[in-house]
Design brief:
The radius of gyration is 29 Å and the shape is elongated. α1 packs across α3 (234-253). The longest helix has 39 residues, at 9-47. The strands form two sheets. Strands 3, 4, 5, 6, 8, 9, 10, 13 and 14 form a nine-stranded antiparallel β-sheet that branches. By secondary structure, the protein is of the alpha+beta class. A hairpin with a 2-residue loop joins β3 and β4 (106-107). The chain is 28% helix and 43% strand. It has one domain (54-253). The chain starts with 8 loop residues before the first helix and ends with a helix. The chain crosses the membrane at residues 26-48. One of its GO terms (biological process) is defense response to other organism. Residues 80-183 form the Late embryogenesis abundant protein LEA-2 subgroup domain.
């Protein structure tokens, strides 16, 4: 004989009450989780202060800067840069660095690739590059602009570095960030060109910006990192990465 069970309205009401209690428990559990996560992000942010890499122009020498034909430039420049990682406990991987020289917003050498390297905590590296250009097209006003600089007694070049960097926090390594460095080289220039190279040894501080690469192809400003313990756990490293993205949004809003 089969047994038929019929639930009373009172039983159904009790079941619905239990479901409501379950939803409330889940809501409070998720609220507590996100509150804890936000608190952890805030604590990590207070510990980690963003600091971008620093570059200084140590020396720049122009060995050749002359027109070989109508609006065609030959150039030869040697430069030395000092790269410094100011972070106490964050390393930096430098990838795909391209160096070139510009004059009056015109590129006057081809891109020169620097070998990739890793920079430890508060380490410094000397970077040297030979920049050349053969038959590079320039504006028709190039010769006129150089003449004006001779009259003013100085020649100003922009020495630029573009590339990608990655941050290393403990065992965690970030995604790639675009980095842009601009150094001003100011060289004394008389009414006649000297037989030797034009040199700049002022130790000029370079401006440095870096941008997080986004899949959609846009660039958003991102802060760098600063100080974190070597034994930072993977979880904290992920939180730290999230903080970088939040810094990005803050900079964009500014």
């Amino acid at each position: 004989m089969s047994q038929i069970s019929i639930k009373s309205p009172k039983h159904c009401a009790k079941h619905g009450l239990n479901v409501d209690k379950l939803y409330k428990k889940l809501f409070f559990a998720f609220s507590a989780f996100f509150t804890t996560l936000l608190s952890l992000i805030l604590i990590v942010w207070l510990i980690l202060r963003p600091a971008k890499p620093e570059f200084t122009l140590k020396e720049a020498d122009i060995f050749q800067l002359s027109l070989s034909g109508p609006n065609l430039l030959n150039s030869s420049i040697q430069l030395t840069l000092l790269s410094k990682n100011p972070n106490q406990k964050v390393g930096i991987y430098y990838d795909d660095l391209q160096v070139y020289a510009a004059y009056k917003s015109q590129q006057i050498t081809v891109d020169t690739t620097l070998p990739p390297f890793y920079q430890g905590h508060q380490d410094s590296n000397l970077l040297t590059a030979s920049l050349v250009g053969t038959g590079l097209p320039v504006a028709s006003s190039f010769n006129y602009e150089v003449g004006r600089d001779q009259t003013a007694g100085k020649l100003v070049l922009n020495l630029k570095v573009n590339g990608r960097i990655r941050w290393k926090v403990g065992t965690w390594v970030s995604g790639r960030y675009r980095i842009n460095v601009n150094c001003l080289a100011v060289m004394a220039l008389g009414p006649t060109l000297p037989t030797g190279p034009l040199s700049s040894r002022e130790g000029a501080i370079c401006s440095t910006t870096h941008f997080k690469q986004v899949k959609c192809g846009t660039s958003i400003t991102a802060s760098a990192l600063n100080g974190v313990d070597k034994d930072l756990s993977s979880k904290n490293a992920i939180v730290f990465a999230n903080r970088i993205e939040e810094e990005t949004e803050l900079h964009d809003g500014a």
